[in-house]
Write a structure and sequence with these properties.
By secondary structure, the chain is mostly helical. The chain has a domain of 83 residues. It contains 15 helices and no strands. Helix 9 packs antiparallel against helix 10, helix 13 runs antiparallel to helix 14 and helix 14 runs antiparallel to helix 15. 30% of the residues are buried. The model has no long low-confidence stretch (mean pLDDT 86).
Length: 325
């Protein structure tokens, strides 16, 4: 049409084609979302959990759409179905399920309230002390205020809240972890070690809690604690090798033991996880110079070097020539 002189018509045809392509793409993403919703309904049914909460959630999304003046009658131009469409699709399926009128499991709800309280204390300390005033002596309220006071710079009040939690359940590993964290980050690593040790034991060696214990042992600057810290941190990264903080602490231990090659390998692991391929490559190359060839650590350093070099090669041609900078 454009070649024949009908420029406007040609542009219109091109725009229509682009819109059709966009419509196909968005329809695909909407189908994925619809599949996710159906999967959520199926999993709730399998777990015997009512779907009322799922519908309440979409009701909140609907309210946001109204506030944002999203009045579309269809979802053609959207990557997600409209909330009203999602509610309509889910309502019949969820209401017909045998678990629709089943009350929420009290233990599960209790855990959920703790999670919400902990997140509130971390993410918005000021709001946490409003939502959970000191007149509220429930476990979630103590949990929220403990983190809020800790982050707000009130260590004594934070410790008081942690002690209240431990008075309610002295064996809870997460309450023990909280007490140890407050002490550690308040500059008392030695005092943090006993509750963190117990937290690690009672949690079944949860790697993130173990990493915090390793940190406390390192922070004492007492060489007598380094062997324990090394063992704990090695177990932690074996169970969860995607925790850059644990690798950082392990690197400190190797450095203080006079093992720069494995300190470099730990640094390479950390930088690789943190998305810094240039530093990861440099650290991996340093590790390769000091670790015996053919050993598991040597092979791991080779892997990190290869992955990092490939990532750098996407943006910098210097890394594409012969594998060297």
């Amino acid at each position: 049409a454009m070649a024949a002189g009908a420029g406007d018509a040609g542009m219109g045809i091109m725009m229509a084609g682009q819109r059709a392509a966009l419509g196909d793409m968005l329809a695909f993403t909407r189908a994925q979302e619809a599949t996710a919703d159906a999967t959520a309904a199926r999993l709730l049914s399998k777990a015997g959990v009512t779907g009322k909460g799922l519908l309440d959630f979409f009701g909140k999304l609907q309210n946001h759409e109204y506030r944002l003046a999203i009045y579309s009658k269809d979802s053609f131009d959207r990557s997600h179905p409209l909330s009203s469409e999602r509610v309509q699709a889910l309502q019949q399926k969820l209401r017909a399920d045998a678990s629709w009128s089943k009350p929420v499991d009290a233990a599960l709800e209790s855990r959920f309230e703790r999670v919400k309280a902990k997140l509130m204390g971390y993410v918005n300390p000021k709001q946490a002390v409003i939502n959970y005033p000191e007149s509220d002596q429930s476990v979630p309220a103590h949990y929220a205020r403990a983190y809020a006071y800790h982050l707000g710079g009130y260590p004594d009040k934070a410790q008081s809240e942690a002690d209240a939690l431990l008075a309610a359940d002295p064996d809870d590993p997460f309450f023990l972890e909280l007490k140890g964290q407050i002490l550690l980050e308040d500059g008392q690593p030695q005092e943090a070690i006993p509750p963190l040790r117990e937290a690690v034991e009672r949690s079944g060696n949860a790697p993130m809690i173990a990493a915090m214990l390793g940190h406390a042992l390192v922070e004492t600057n007492d060489p007598k604690n380094f062997a324990e810290a090394k063992q704990i941190l090695k177990v932690a990264v074996n169970r969860d090798n995607e925790d850059p903080f644990a690798w950082y602490q392990l690197g400190i231990i190797y450095d203080r033991e006079g093992d720069p090659a494995r300190a470099s390998l730990a640094t390479a692991e950390r930088n690789n996880l943190e998305g810094n391929p240039k530093l990861a490559l440099a650290s991996a190359q340093m590790a390769l110079k000091g670790i015996p060839p053919g050993t598991p650590d040597y092979l791991r350093a080779q892997d990190i070097a290869m992955v990092s070099r490939a990532e750098l090669a996407k943006k910098d041609k210097r890394y594409r020539k012969d594998g060297r900078e």
